[in-house]
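ok so i was messing around last nite and threw this chain in just to see what happens. nothing serious, just curious
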Amino acid sequence: MHGGSARCVPGPFPIGKEFSIVFLEESFFRRHWILSILGVILVIVLSAPGIALWYLGRGPFPDYSLDLLAPKPGDATPAGVLEVGVSKRDISPNFAAKDAWTDVNDNGKYDEGVDSYEDRNGNGKFDGIWIAGFDTNRPAKGIHDAPWVRALALRNNGVTLALVTIDSIGIFHNEFIRIRKMIDPALGITHAAFSSTHCHELPDTMGNWSFWRRIQYKGKDIDVPIWGYDRQYMDFICQMAKEAIEEAVKNLKPADMYCTQVQAGPEGFVRDTRKPVVFDPNMYLFRFTEQGTDRTIATFVNWGNHPEALGGDNPIITSDFPHFLREGMENGLPAPNGVQGFGGMCLYFQGMIGGLMTQLGVEVPDRDGQRAYKDSSFEKAAALGQNAAIVACNALRGPNVWKNENPRLAVTAKTFLAPMSGMFKWAVRLGALHEGYFGSGRARSEIDVIRIGGVLILTIPGEIYSEIVQGGVEALPGRDFPIDPIEVPRLRLEMEKNARMAFVLGLANDEIGYIIPKSQWDAVPPYVYDNSDQYGEENSGGPDIAPTIHQEALQLLQRMNAVFAATK
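result:
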């Protein structure tokens, strides 16, 4: 009986009272069973968008969390001989796997109905290699120089670190988690830190520039979504990074480490395109040699400058000025005004570039002293890279070089949740960008602090404005948030407490865009500077990113300094 309340209702069956009761009960349950199934189906249908949204937003590694400190507090293992190894992998895209195309109107864009292509996979649409940076719809036509993954491995006092630089516009945090999980655990790597060069002339590794194609409609250019992001290329980069890291560790050998820093420009090199004008003018340089010899294992260059000397109309794959800088450091440059190279492998790591630090609009002199280049071109990229190489080579042979005599290794690294807002929040929520949504619009990211004896390195997961590190955050009338500067004290005060050299690796372990001091957020009129808006906010995760990163970085720096003081 259903709840003991079923009643006998006369029916058309002359078989007796008991049958009528049983029949009614079965009919009731059958009807309710069908309704229940329909209800479940309806719930699933109505819930499907929410389930899909939840799945897309959670990302591939929702449970990943990092809170690392090595060596452990109290471990006073003395520094022995530093071991160093390097390796690299070519990450050139495979043009044979993509459609060849003819730029009929020679405008560097793919125009539907105007340009032609060879449909190699027969899917009826153009599949190009989409170049990242600047505008969308920039398919590559060829390659000038190979992009690279370059890995530097360091081992001392029971700690093994890998520092990896990747020629790319930027790579999201989940990809670096994936690489870490791929590395052979038998190698005993304590931590691997990554940085993107932020070159604007390489295949899209973020998806921002692969979603659109320009078509002509009624005589007008219209960008339409095509969802052409090449996941296979990103998988290829991850595999190459894994291999480079593992090989660098296997190549470890006793080494000496020499350090210096030198000012590069700004005139003829770089400019800050957003007020207030604050930047770090220095290049930070290492040279690692085989112990007791002058044979170079590697040179290391950290400098803050957007690699975009080719501009937004270039259709050729290139690593921009870092290519020419690395070539100059390794192989030298002939006369006039040449320089002897060091051999070994040069690794270029990006610095602080928010604001933004660029050579666009800068007149870059050729090293021959006869020419200068202001417009975007390969000649400008070559001149900038070669001039930077000359400055770096001369500095590493100059009087201010010091030997890192006690190169004890230490690292602290921590994941944190960055509060995203606006379109960035929804892009993360939908899984379209930076997979991994953690309640109230927060995206998981990471900050590291690395010590190599007298050197301290702070990794920042995006393009930080220099005033947060160098000082000079402003709060002028008319700003969007009537607050005093939040990102104080300046991070360099804590960075240099126990370090002879300290610098920032930008776009490290993530790319969450511009990191703008909240009191300088200026997206709504009236505008603070010259009554005009400035570039930046449209490529930022929001005004609360900078205060969060400043606080997280400050805490990690204080943790590192406390451990250093306890084991000194």
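not much to say yet. DSSP finds nine helices and 27 strands in the chain.
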